[in-house]
Amino acid sequence: MTARSTHTLRGHILHPDGEFRPGSLSFGLQISGLTTEAAPADLYILPGFIDTHIHGGAGGDTMDGPAGIQKLARLHAQHGTTTLLPTTITHRWPEVLAALRGVREVMDAGGVVGGADIVGAHLEGPFISPGRLGAQPPHAVLPQPDLTAELLALDVIRAVTLAPELPGALELARALAGRGVRIGIGHTRADADTVSAFLHTLHELGARTCATHLYNAMGGIEGRTPGAAGALLADPHAFLEVILDSVHVHPTAFLLAHAAAPGRVLLITDAMRAAGLGDGPSELGGQPVTVQGGKATLADGTIAGSVLTLDVALRNAVRLGLPLPEVSRMLSAAPAASLGLTDRGELRVGLRADLTVLDADLNVKAVYVGGQAIPLQPTEAHA
Ligand SMILES: [Zn+2]
After folding, report:
1. Quick check: is 270 catalytic?
2. pTM to 2 decimals?
3. What is the pLDDT of residues 187-216, one digit of tens each?
4. How far is the CA of 231 from the centre of ligand 1 (A)?
């Protein structure tokens, strides 16, 4: 690790108690000082955003290997994301393993210069329901001990998405949770009782749990059949990923999650390679995708991954009436807690200097990853 110079930023600093106070923040790799004093009122200093579910951006995809991971890590850092989990898609097993090895390779090489910090991979499938693929290609398989052993040997997975109703799902979840992996429930046809029992067993083991893109690819909520989404909302411990891009989730559904599970909602992008490229043709897991007006769809009209970035998700949440400190929590403290990351997610002396600075219109003005400034490219006016 090279020595880093000390920087000082002045503005309205978001403290862990949820209050903005004017002051200065000094940092190298870590935050070394926080003061309260007069400071510019039009700069907000927030903990950097943490995206636990992100496939791609700027034309790169996790499945491309290190070159794709570098592209997405740099693109999303431009939008305030300072930590992320490159996320695989359901695919043939050798390709999934190769993508995970790519994530490991990038991490072992010291990460992505000018990009977000990479703290592991999110394995989305292939252990999902063939009846609830969403936009995942049809390569779902059942969990098996030999596949689990291959995953554990790679030592790179930090989060997994699986369908709890599959035979062998609990054994897989147990093995991964034993390594500290966050267990995500998603792409599932399980009913509420199945999901509740699954979560209960995992919590007794001390596992961290999450809904993978709550509401999407898990069916709806009815009074007599609350479904997986109902069980996840009602659970006292499970974190809840939400794609707040005005395509995947109705605003009221998002507000319901926030009301039912304060502190447990975390915003993700689920971004695909087309993020940051504007409208046009793209690709997801080998399938052609069309992006039009910010909506990505497969040829049959199925909503594919998003083209969201987390700065846009932040502005969407604020537009729905949430106070900025609560939204910040969904972007930093909650995802950090969901992954068991204790060295980031808040602005406190001794934590990593992962910082996102916003102007009064909530546009990204500066980003620091581990104390290093990310050179920001000029962008068109934000939506
Ligand atoms: Zn995804």
Report:
1. yes
2. 0.96
3. 999 999 999 999 999 999 999 999 999 999
4. 21
